[in-house]
Amino acid sequence: MIRTLRGGVPLVLLCAACASTPLGKVDPGTLPAQAAYPEHGAIVVFHHQTVQFALGDDGEPVSISTVRRRVKLLAESGRHEARVVAHYSKAFSDVRDFVVQVTHPDGEVVVTRQEDASDVPSAPGFVLYSDTRVLTVSNQHVPTGSVIDSSYTIVRRDALYWALAHQHAEDVPVLDSRFEVSAPAGWTLETRHRLGNEEAPDAHTADGQTIVYAAQDVEALPRWAHAPPAWRLRPLFLVRLASYVDGSGERHQLFTDFPSLSRFYAELEAPQLIVSDDIRDKAREVLRGAPPTKSDRARLLYNWVRDHITYCAIHLGIGGWQPHKSSETFDVGYGDCKDKANLLRSLLAADGIDSHMASIHNHRGYPKDSVLPVLGANYNHAILVVETEQGRIVADPTTRLVPFGQLPFGDQGAHLLVGTKGGEDLVRTPLSEPFDNRGVYTANATVHDDGTISEQIAFEAWGETARRIRANFLIHTASEQKEAVAALFDLDREHVQGVEVQGAAPPATISPVSGTVKLHDKTPRVVKAGPAQLVTLGEIVPTSLPDVRNRQRTAPVLLGPPRHLRVVTTLVPPVGWQVQSLPPAFTRETDDVVVALRFSQEGQTVKVARDLLVKSPWVEVARVPDYVRLVTDLHEKERAAIVLAPTP
After folding, report:
1. What is the pLDDT of residue 189?
2. Which end of the chain is more exposed for a tag (fewer CB within 10 A), N or C?
3. CA dihedral of residues 366, 166, 380, 82 (deg, nearest 10)
4. Where are the extended beta strands (E) located within 41-116?
5. Which DSSP state fits 257?
6. β-bridge mates for residue 601, sequence order
7. In the predicted model, what is the mean pLDDT of residues 446-459?
8. How far apart are CA 234 and CA 69, in angstroms?
């Protein structure tokens, strides 16, 4: 039985004509079963992408990309692989011949064509509106053992902005993967092969050739905790159009390098800089009585944009890279990252301060490097480079809790494309030092007769450590400070007895957040061992390093921002008890982390000092074994007990 979905109404066809199985007949029983892949819920039988560059009807270059894919669903855990997705942009591309054919284990065939697929925004939870879309069929009710075939063609008119990409490795095994790209004679294609941030040595330029990357029996890449996203670790093949010949035989060169892309970016942004009378008036108002230095004046204008322009993203066509006119953003009071940076650029220009729009790839702890000179495949965030007497200051007015002169961690260490008339090569955004993100916590802890512990903690934090504390308070109202502290210290709200915080609001300058917290853990944390009581370090000073014990790990370990955290705890035993013994001191250092624990006795109290120095944002794979040994030894030391005994 064959069913074809049209207009949402099932149509039963009794014939077996080729039109009823548009992607060809397939017998699920002839494909591997779960017994062959017991650890996976699906396999990709083949994933083929064929791309051909050509001249469009308007004489501009287009790429015609046809994707064919066959997946067999082996178990419920692989159901996400049953979903078919085609990304496109209304402004720059068209989807053609989209069809999904599902063959059930019993031979029943269900066909979904383009008019019946879901057409939804590609990022509905992030932007208010964008014309980047996803054509998708979920196949959530497909029985296990089914085969999902899909095929579609996308005609793209964005060769100036994008590179085409293909990845052989996926979350599940791939039996056959193929990426084939061709162009007419005289046209040139530039390719790169990348693994993570490492560019492979086979990069080359092809003239009138067909480029083929193929692989068989590709193993699934494992998912690791505290690791970069899986797509960042898979081998990636990139191809872009470098030059083409039009109908008259004239050659057109696209970007030759990143300086040429920098010049284009500057030209794209230049007309959006509007210094209106209202913007001049606002700049004078904000700067009334301000110091004469450019850095101080830029800081005040930065603070105004950061705090008064609401983030709201609307992307239409070229609007994915080009901001709205700065006068429009000022008038409506909202905009996305590009709009906020461009408005700040206008306010600075009104005061005679030069600045440049810049693009980066905002990350979650593992920067993505740019490898081909295109905008779309490299960057997802716009910021500003400000020229001051102190030199260039890279500023991100989108982030509410970061002061001028600092960058949020997601911006740090990333390739930076600065748009200037003369063109510039890529540079990296500055990476903060551990001292910039320091935190000092001083706790007075009292052990009670019932085994519970009450504490009063005073803290002072800077940089990214302060930003994370501020973020906890930002998402809670003033009456919800206990919830904020409970989230901050990973506690039950009932354990929080009192909170006082200073500097939690968006900072006007580089300044700390500080405060005191009173806690009383109502769950006994002291272990009785005969007449003695044992208090382990882990109960009073929990670790803050990712715990990864697998020595065969093939992914970096993300540690977060470089930082120096110092925790000093004074422990007071119950009345009638004294300190019998303390654990030995412990110090361990790797290329990425330094930890130190020290115990001392002062009268009837115990002082525990713990220092954590994170020198690198991530641990490369080759250094993971050293890191694992450090964390293993640290956990062992944290289980060592402070032994309390009754006073004789």
Report:
1. 92
2. C
3. -90
4. 42-55, 61-73, 84-89, 93-103, 109-113
5. S
6. 606
7. 87
8. 18
Helix (H, G, I), strand (E, B) or coil at 639: coil
CA distance 503 to 131: 40
Instruction: Count the neighbouring beta carbons within 10 Å of the beta carbon of residue 603.
Output: 8
Strand segments, DSSP code E, in 246-343 are 251-253, 310-311, 314-315, 334-335
- Predicted confidence band of residue 14 (pLDDT cuts 50, 70, 90): very low
- Within 8 A by CB and 6+ apart from 357, the residues are 265, 266, 269, 323, 338, 341, 342, 345, 382, 384, 418, 419
| Six token digits for residue 361 | 């790839």
- 306 within 8 A of 506, measured Cβ to Cβ: yes
CB of 50 within 8 A of CB of 166? no
- Rounded Cα distance, 516 and 8, in Å: 61
Give pLDDT, residue 19.
Answer: 54
Rounded to the nearest 10°, the torsion over CA 352, 356, 362, 367 is -120
pLDDT of residue 529: 67
CA distance 518 to 445: 10
Among 114, 21, 10, which Cα is nearest to 70's? 21
Among 634, 548, 614, which Cα is nearest to 225's?
548
Question: What is d(CA 484, CA 488) in angstroms, rounded to the nearest whole number?
Answer: 6
Reduced DSSP (H G I as helix, E B as strand, rest coil) percent helix, strand, coil of the chain, to 5: 20, 40, 40
Q: Judge whether residue 265 has pLDDT over 60.
A: yes
Q: Rounded CA gap, 364 and 229, in Å? A: 9
pTM of the model: 0.91
For the stretch 638-641, contacts whose Cβ atoms lie closer than 8 Å and that sit 24 or more positions apart, written own/partner, are 638/536, 638/537, 638/538, 638/541, 638/543, 639/536, 639/537, 639/538, 640/536, 640/537, 640/583, 640/584, 641/527, 641/534, 641/535, 641/536, 641/583
The stretch 172-182 carries a mean pLDDT of 95
